[in-house]
Design goal:
Elements (H helix, E strand, L loop, with lengths): L1 H18 L11 H15 L20 E3 L12 H13 L5 E6 L6 H21 L7 E7 L10 H7 L1 E6 L3
Parallel strand pairs: 2-3
Antiparallel strand pairs: 1-4, 2-4
Amino acid sequence: MKLFNRFLILALFSITIAACGTATKEEAPPADDQQAQQDQRAAAQDEGAFQGSPFDDPNNPLSKRTIYFEFDSSDVPAEDREVITAHAEYLVANPNATVVLEGHADERGTREYNIALGERRAKAVSQLMLLQGVAQSQMDVISFGEERPVALGHDEAAWRLNRRVEILYTGN
């Protein structure tokens, strides 16, 4: 399935590039440039080579920008620490990049409690990033509590999706 997704992305990228081409006639590049272009094409076709933003590469932890939490908890799940580490490393390497950490909760509990819980969740992610060297000025924490659900159901499946922190890049 991953191979199919890669192929699909590469095919869409190729179609987009072809559609953007111009109808003007160009001279053939010198032989050295032709070899360099062939080498680039071969490298791009190499399995596992992703062309594009690391945020769009499904094999890169930066592509995951949502951290899910257990009921009534602000403890970052162990399986998501690698994702947070990857985002922290990116932010440290790109000091002009900034993120908004949006905390959310499911609909259970009072509005006030859920706002506070969403904030605790976002601050937990922020704290892990701070410990890895991200500057406080690169992060903003906000809580929406239960006000912005991604799933509208009233069952565990919907609630599980709504208990989250979203990592939203704003300055890159």
